[in-house]
Amino acid sequence: MSIVGLLTFANFNDVKAQDQPAAEATEQVAEATDQVAEEAAPVEEAAAPADDTKSFHQMLKEKYIQGGAGWMTPVLLCLIFGMALIIERILYLNMATTNVKKLLDGIEDKAKTNDWKGARELCANTRGPVASIFVQGLDRIDQGLENVEKAVTSYGGVQMARLENNMTWIGLFIALAPSFGFLGTVVGMVQAFDDIETAGDISPTVVAGGMKVALLTTIFGLITAIILQIFYNYILTKIESLVDQMEDGSISFMDILVKYHK
Q1: For the chain, what are the domain ranges?
Q2: Would you say 124 and 110 are in contact if contact means Cβ atoms under 8 Å apart?
Q3: Share of the chain above pLDDT 90, in %
Q4: Is the model more confident about 243 or about 190?
Q5: pTM reported for the whole predicted model
Q6: What pLDDT does residue 236 have?
């Protein structure tokens, strides 16, 4: 019995000794798993990007405020007034475009039958500076071709001046926009030096505010000038095209009068 009891006790201790390492290993694995999960959680949170995307309108508004309303407003007004005049000129020039060949063919058809009154009505019902010039010439058809030519030449100059109306103001806004931007730059630099003098330090933090005003006003002024200049050149090209139509049309018009007027 004693021997059996000793053997039983020894086996029990061996089993207990084997169970303890297994339990300890299980606890260590669980702790390691929890630790990995805790470390992975911040990584997952950091991996999720924050939804800080701003629209173009919001970014533009933010930069406008940062540049200073006192210096950005004049640049903005140059852009608004300049674009208003540009739109007016584009609409006017598009409405002034005339199919000169079709108009001359109609006048020639009327001239073949000496229907000068009908030719005048045709020109009066056609929009554009070319037709207006022809109307002035036909009004003086009974006064001789010399007077007709003078009327066409004189009224052609009037129509050219009307085509170039408001172009001077557009050019002014093109010059003012970068000028206001550069003025804001100078003021921003002065502000930066004042901040340096007040703080007694030349660190980037001290001069950042003034430099930002300087750079933003310059950028917006140049962008405004570039936009207006592009449209300004387009309008000049359109005016040159219409002037060429007026000159060529006037020559062909006089040729018709010389050919059919008796």
Answers
A1: 1-49, 60-262
A2: no
A3: 34
A4: 243
A5: 0.70
A6: 95
